[in-house]
Design brief:
The protein has two helices and four strands, in the order E-E-E-E-H-H. The chain has one domain: Ribosomal Protein L24e, Chain: T (Roll). The protein is of the alpha+beta class. The longest helix is centred in the last third of the chain and has 11 residues.
C-alpha cells in the first residue's frame, strides 16, 4: 500500500542526511499516516481511511462529513462516496 494520505495527498519527499562533515546521503521523509475507521452518521456508513495527522486534526475540528464535503467542493477525489439519504 502506498504511503499517501487519501484526503490531503501528502506523500514521501526526498532529502539529504547531513553528517557533521557535511557529507550528504539521500533519505526519504515519510508522512505521519494513521489508518482510521470512521463512522459518518449523515450517510450511516463506515469508512476506512489512511490519513495524515494533519487531516485527522481537521476532521476533529470540522467533523468527517463537513471535511469530505469541503474536499468534494474543491474537486479532490477521496475515494469515499457520500450517499446522502
Amino acid at each position: 500500500m502506498a504511503r499517501i494520505c487519501q484526503l490531503t495527498g501528502k506523500r514521501p519527499i526526498a532529502g539529504n542526511n547531513v553528517s557533521h562533515s557535511k557529507m550528504r546521503t539521500k533519505r526519504r521523509f515519510l508522512p505521519n499516516l494513521v489508518t482510521k475507521k470512521m463512522y459518518i452518521p449523515e450517510t450511516d456508513q463506515w469508512v476506512n481511511l489512511k490519513i495524515s495527522a494533519k487531516a485527522l486534526r481537521d476532521i476533529n475540528k470540522l467533523g468527517i462529513f463537513a471535511y469530505l464535503k469541503k474536499l468534494e467542493r474543491k474537486g479532490v477525489h477521496t475515494g469515499v462516496k457520500l450517499n446522502i439519504k
